[in-house]
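Feature request disguised as a bug: please show the residue count (205) next to HAT C-terminal dimerisation domain-containing protein in the output. Example input:
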Amino acid sequence: MDSFFGMETSAILQQFPDAKAAAIKHDLSIFYQAALNYLEKWYDFTDNNYQKNVASLALKSKFTFSHLCDAVDALQIRGKLDMDELYDEYCVTLPRQQDIVERRAPVVEKWSTLLQGTKTPNLTAVASFLFSIPITNASVESVFPHDGSVTDQRNRCSVELIKSEIQVKNNFGYSCKEFYTCALKEKALLEAARSNKKYKVRKNF
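Example output, currently without the count:
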């Protein structure tokens, strides 16, 4: 490592005594190496990298059928597609690729335009599968602040429980006291709550 941390950092380091500047550089080098080690441990930089194999579908440049096959294999959906038909569909959209890649638009919009008016079920399936993969877990994590259940126990909550809590929170405008008073008047609801049967009582409050 060449110990270059940017011109602004170099200018700041010159304000320190040599020994102090050397110590700071040493700490920065340790931090930098730790960051590299973390990336190398958790990220695949080889040619088998999943993101590398699907990057061609970002429509930043024209992609070949070979690129498309690599993406299909990376997504592990070859068995769900007719590869011969996929080639025909690729050929149908090929003349439109150059115009699409030159547009300044989100990738989803580009694919929508590329496939618009075409009968390309296999290529559409590839695009649909690809865009169904969340790029982060932010959408999942945002459920808990919305639900108000940010606790150490949330990892043990079932999907059904979280769904029920959110439905109750979003659909009831009653205070706890108001709901308690209202629920006491609903005998069928109380009986369902006491039983082990699946709730089938539907009531508009």
